[in-house]
Amino acid sequence: MDSTELRIAAVVPCHNEEAAVAKVVTDLKAAVPGIVVYVYDNRSTDATAERAREAGAIVRYENTKGKGNVVRRAFADIEADIYLMIDGDDTYEASAAPEMIATLLDGPYDHVLGVRKQDEEANAYRSGHETGNKVLNGVVGKVFGENVEDMLSGFRVFSRRFVKSFPAVSREFEIETELTVHSLHLRVPQTAVPVGFRDRPAGSESKLRTYRDGTKILALILGLARHERPVAFYGLFGTVAWLISIILTIPIVVEFYNTHTVPRFPTLFFAFTLMLLGSLAWTAGWILDGIRRSRHEAARLVYLRYSAPGVNGTVEASR
Fold first, then answer.
1. Range of the structural domain that residue 272 is part of
2. Are residues 283 and 206 in the same domain?
């Protein structure tokens, strides 16, 4: 099916982007004829909404602060066949959108990631952000067993079945990490396309805070590891508890063998407590792993209710 026959929606989260949002909307409309651009004004105190509306966007408001809240709202409210997500700061080359959409349809894929390629003369990556991004990519790759090229990219294209099976629980900039992990644990067909990445326009200020946002993302990864790899997560704590327990117990057993007395009873009690806690940790890991499998099966069934991008035939797709 040709992309012009499909409903394509762009979601543009914005907070105080009056200097950039009009160009983002204009570039998207020029690059993808027929695209419907939704600008979500997230508690802006400037003229973001006015500039977006003048450029031809549909402006909606999300008053709960945070990019994750915007994406959660947009994915729930907007009905489309293909969803494009791009930041409203004009740092991404919107001209890459047609290639990303065509790639999604040709696969067909459910998720096309725009991997940022910075212009040689640009300095769009702030100090520490590029290194931090690589570190987080590596952490997610190790935890979930998949290589991730640019986990924090804000330029992506999704199928309807990806969007409608995505729970969106993150509140702020962790949303990109959650999108990446969702695609990994659901094992959707996905690929990546290089996209240009440039400096913000004059008068536009970054909302990112390197250490604050990095800490939140790491906390999210830790939480996702607990939910998505519970046996490994709780098993690690259980094994450490067992090892400490054994180390504490051996001298006591040796002394008991030689003297038939237990002079360090509190230490022995502590060691037995650690052994019990280690066993409970492993038990919790196995129980939560069963719950994880059930969650994944439920998400997969929701995903399967929708047809592949550009393919008709399911009940939901034909509504």
1. 229-304
2. no
Number of structural domains in the chain: 2
Residue 90 is assigned to a structural domain of this protein: yes
pTM: 0.80
Query: Which of 201, 232, 146 is closest to 20 using CA atoms?
Result: 201
Structure tokens at 190: 């996905």
Instruction: Establish if 52 belongs to a structural domain.
Output: yes
Per-residue pLDDT of the chain (319 residues; tens, 9 = 90+): 556 689 999 999 999 999 999 999 999 999 999 999 999 999 999 999 999 999 999 999 999 999 999 999 999 999 999 999 999 999 999 999 999 999 999 999 999 999 998 766 555 555 555 666 777 777 777 777 777 788 889 999 999 999 999 988 888 878 888 898 889 888 899 999 999 998 877 666 665 566 666 677 677 677 777 888 899 999 999 999 999 999 999 988 888 888 888 778 889 899 999 999 999 999 999 999 999 889 888 888 989 999 888 776 433 443 3
- As a three-state string, the secondary structure of the chain is CCHHHCCEEEEEEECCCCCCHHHHHHHHHHHCCCCEEEEEECCCCCCHHHHHHHCCCEEEECCCCCHHHHHHHHHHHCCCCEEEECCCCCCECHHHHHHHHHHHHHCCCCEEEEEEEECCCCCCCCCCHHHHHHHHHHHHHHHHCCCCCCCCCCCEEEEHHHHHCCCCCCCCCCHHHHHHHHHHHCCCCEEEEEEEECCCCCCCCCCCCHHHHHHHHHHHHHHHHHHHCHHHHHHHHHHHHHHHHHHHHHHHHHHHHHHCCCCCHHHHHHHHHHHHHHHHHHHHHHHHHHHHHHHHHHHHHHHHCCCCCCCCCCCCCCC
Both 127 and 202 in one domain: the answer is: yes
**Domain identity same for 156 and 276:** no
Q: What are phi and psi of 314, to 5 degrees?
A: -95, 165
